[in-house]
Structures are given as structure tokens and as C-alpha cells.
Design the sequence.
């Protein structure tokens, strides 16, 4: 595993994604590849009025401590999430009232109309745990408290964790007798573990290490993460739409992919990449930028060192933009030191690796935060009525084909402003030892070990 636990494996933090990747904690809903809601601990659901949903809880499920899954237990877990400080980010700006209706039905009332509530409930941060998990002062301990095919038995600080097969699982029983998980932040060490056979399954092999491995063991998974150049539309040279077009036309995406990412990324055709399998077929034509010469316009590009490839991207962009007549300076710092300046619009351009699908599995939240007039992450300082209207239309459309079409219309509206120039879509490189079968290759990084995952030694 790439990262050690940061919050004691509480599901109310990003540690929840480890619990889901190990198949130990489960949610009411899961998502299919298109991001549509599918049954998990809830077998069915319906919207009874614009603010109210009812979920039928799966019968015959037991927690790892032997206690039964009930509607009351679901209510308690979800209520604990709503009262957490800080809240799980999937609940930001959302107020829920959660009650049990009989033994098998949970009613959830939302303060605002929320067509994405089922998708929100798929977030690993809203996993349902046994009563024993919830201690004083908001502490949540998932050991022995999940419902999945693997039972978490121990956690050794930030170094390792152990899980055993749970034979009382309600679904398909696990093929493997257990999981030994080691937390190894050093990418070279993770790659070495695959090469030497000390690990069967390895997260996030660095691009530089991948060529050193047996390529039959290396698997690239498209991520819903786009490397984008954000251009400041409010002030400076890129307040002029013509300069934005010149910059957009000057960028050679293939060179960046081939040199910085060694070909292990996808050239961007839009904001949303191949991790969303429906995006390419629904993409709407955009206005092609007109090339030109910037006549010596001076710009400053900002980016950060926390992702080591981004400073290298900045070097490539500087060369390409200078060839188009810009005078370019770079400002590269740690993310914690540069974020506030980026959000305040202190750069003419900013390079960012940005997740385009957040915890609900839906890209509307990303489009709103990054490109709406009052978006909280609007580095481009973009305020365009057409863009706002398109994003609003997408947000109000029910999940399904019509919403996806509306999302792509919003993407087109953003791209037509040339306020953001998507360059590439990242991939995660996963290592799988010879003899390993049926591991998940999940763009959302919610799954890794499946019930059928096994090693034939």
C-alpha cells in the first residue's frame, strides 16, 4: 500500500478507502463503471418526494462481531458521520435527517433536493460499522466491525495491517484466507517488493520504476485525474481571450506525455478522460484555439513539488509558451505554501493535477468548484454566465444518460472559454505478481482485493 493510515483507519477520513480496498467495510450503495448506483447493503431504494428517500436494508447480514445489520444500526452509523468534526467531505454542504422505519427501512431526508443521494452513500467514508466501532469523543475503530468478506483483525500503527477471511459473509466468500497489508510510502521499495516476489499486489508504482519491472506484471489503470493548465481570466495577459487561445494552441500534449510521463498517460481530449467510459462518445465539439504570437507578454506559471512530475511539466510548458512569444517565469513551491496564492489569482497560469470525479462518482462537483463563478477552487477566476448555466443544468438533471449529456455540455462550455487547458489524464500503475488472479483495477481506487482475488503459488 502506498500511504500509511493518517487517522487510525477511521472511515470518517480518507483512510476509508483502505477499508474498501481491503473489502472489510461496506456501504449501502456501490457504483458501476458509469457511476450509476447499484445495490450493496441496501437492496433497493426509492425517492418518495423531492427531499425524501427510502432504502431497504439487506437481510441476513452480520457484522464481523456477529451482531446483525439492522435499519437502526445503519441510522447510527450514518448519523455518526453527519455529526463528525470534520464531516466526511461527501457531506459538505449537505444536511441529512436519518431515521429507521421498521426493522429494514431507512428514511433519509435532505435539506436540499439532491438527485445524487444514492451515489453519495457509495462513499467509503459512509461505511456501515457495528456498534462496537464507535467510542467516545468521535473515535471510530473499524477492527472487527465491518460486514465485508475480509475481517480486519489488527493494525500495527503505520506499518501494517492483517485481515482474515470472514466465513459468515453474506455474499461470495473470499477465495484467499487473508490479507497482509504493508504500508510502504517509498515507490522504489514498492517496486522492489514486486520484483523480488515479497508482495503479490502493489499500489502506485512510480513511472520511473515501471520500465525496470517485468512488463507482464505491470498494469496501467486510467484515473479520473486530469493534469490541467488553468489560465487567469480576471487579470494579466490571459484576461484577453486571444492570449488564452494562443497559449492553448501552443501546448504540445504528446511531448509532455512522452517526456515527463514516459508515455504512461493519456493525451487529453477534454476535461474528463477515459476513466469515465461514457465521456468520449458524448463529447461535444469545441472551438479550436487559434495559434498566434503573444508579442512578449510576460506570464508567471505556478505549480507545486508534492507531485514530482508537475515541475517537469512546467519546464516543458515554459519552452512551448516561449516559442509562442510569451516571456515565462516559474514559481514552484510545496503545495501547502502555494495553494492560497493560486486560489487568490496571484498567478497568470497554474498547473494542477486535479481529480475530476469526487466521492459521489460524479464530475459535476468538480466542474462547479473549479469553473463556476462562486466555485471554491476557481483558480482560473472564471465567471461566465454560459458556463454557470450549463453546470447548473447538469446538477439539476437526474443521474443517467441525460445527466451525462448535460455534463458534457458543461465541459464544452468551459473549454470554449480556454480558461483551462487539459493536457493529459493520469494513470495509476498497479503491480500484480505472477499467479495473482482477479485483483480489481479500479479507476476510482475504491477496490483492490476482491472476493475472488487469489494467488496460485
Sequence:
Amino acid at each position: 500500500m502506498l500511504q500509511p493510515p493518517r487517522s487510525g483507519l477511521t472511515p470518517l477520513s480518507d483512510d476509508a478507502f483502505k477499508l474498501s480496498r481491503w473489502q472489510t467495510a461496506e456501504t449501502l450503495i456501490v457504483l458501476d463503471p458509469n457511476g450509476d448506483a447499484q445495490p450493496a447493503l441496501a437492496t433497493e431504494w426509492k425517492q418518495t418526494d423531492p427531499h425524501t428517500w427510502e432504502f431497504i436494508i439487506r437481510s441476513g447480514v452480520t457484522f464481523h462481531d456477529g451482531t446483525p445489520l439492522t435499519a437502526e444500526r445503519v441510522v447510527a452509523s450514518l448519523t455518526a458521520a453527519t455529526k463528525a468534526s470534520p464531516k466526511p467531505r461527501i457531506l459538505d454542504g449537505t444536511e441529512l435527517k436519518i431515521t429507521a422505519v421498521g426493522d429494514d427501512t431507512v428514511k433519509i431526508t435532505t435539506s436540499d433536493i439532491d438527485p445524487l443521494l444514492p451515489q453519495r452513500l457509495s462513499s467509503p467514508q459512509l461505511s456501515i460499522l457495528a456498534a462496537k466501532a464507535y467510542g467516545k469523543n468521535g473515535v471510530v475503530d473499524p477492527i472487527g466491525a465491518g460486514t465485508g468478506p475480509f475481517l480486519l483483525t489488527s493494525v500495527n500503527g503505520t506499518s501494517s495491517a492483517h485481515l482474515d477471511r470472514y466465513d459468515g459473509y453474506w455474499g461470495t466468500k473470499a477465495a484467499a484466507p487473508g490479507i497482509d497489508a504493508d504500508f510502504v510510502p517509498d515507490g522504489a521499495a514498492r517496486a522492489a517488493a514486486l520484483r523480488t516476489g515479497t508482495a503479490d499486489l502493489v499500489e502506485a508504482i512510480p513511472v520511473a520504476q515501471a520500465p525496470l519491472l517485468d512488463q507482464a506484471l505491470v498494469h496501467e489503470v486510467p484515473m479520473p485525474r486530469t493534469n490541467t493548465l488553468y489560465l487567469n481570466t480576471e487579470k494579466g495577459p490571459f484576461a484577453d481571450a486571444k492570449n488564452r487561445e494562443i497559449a492553448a494552441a501552443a501546448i504540445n500534449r504528446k511531448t509532455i506525455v512522452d517526456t515527463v510521463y514516459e508515455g504512461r498517460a493519456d493525451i487529453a481530449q477534454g476535461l474528463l478522460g477515459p476513466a469515465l467510459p461514457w465521456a468520449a462518445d458524448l463529447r461535444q465539439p469545441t472551438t479550436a484555439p487559434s495559434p498566434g504570437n503573444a508579442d512578449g507578454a510576460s506570464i508567471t506559471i505556478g505549480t507545486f513539488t508534492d507531485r514530482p512530475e508537475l515541475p517537469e511539466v512546467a519546464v516543458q510548458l515554459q519552452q512551448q509558451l516561449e516559442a509562442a512569444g510569451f516571456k515565462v517565469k516559474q514559481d514552484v513551491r510545496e503545495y501547502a505554501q502555494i495553494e492560497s496564492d493560486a486560489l487568490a489569482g496571484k498567478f497568470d497560469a497554474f498547473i494542477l493535477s486535479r481529480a475530476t470525479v469526487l466521492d459521489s462518482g460524479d464530475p459535476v462537483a468538480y466542474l462547479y468548484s473549479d469553473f463556476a463563478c462562486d466555485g471554491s477552487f476557481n483558480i482560473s477566476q472564471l465567471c461566465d454566465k454560459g458556463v454557470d448555466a450549463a453546470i447548473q443544468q447538469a446538477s439539476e438533471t437526474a443521474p443517467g444518460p441525460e445527466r451525462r449529456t448535460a455534463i458534457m455540455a458543461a465541459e464544452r462550455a468551459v473549454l470554449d472559454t480556454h480558461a483551462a487547458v487539459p493536457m493529459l489524464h493520469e494513470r495509476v500503475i498497479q503491480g500484480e505478481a505472477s499467479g495473482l488472479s482477479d485483483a480489481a483495477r479500479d479507476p476510482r481506487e475504491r477496490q483492490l482485493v476482491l472476493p475472488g482475488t487469489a494467488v496460485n503459488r
Q: What stands out?
A: The chain has two domains: 16-183, 223-427. The chain has a mean pLDDT of 94.
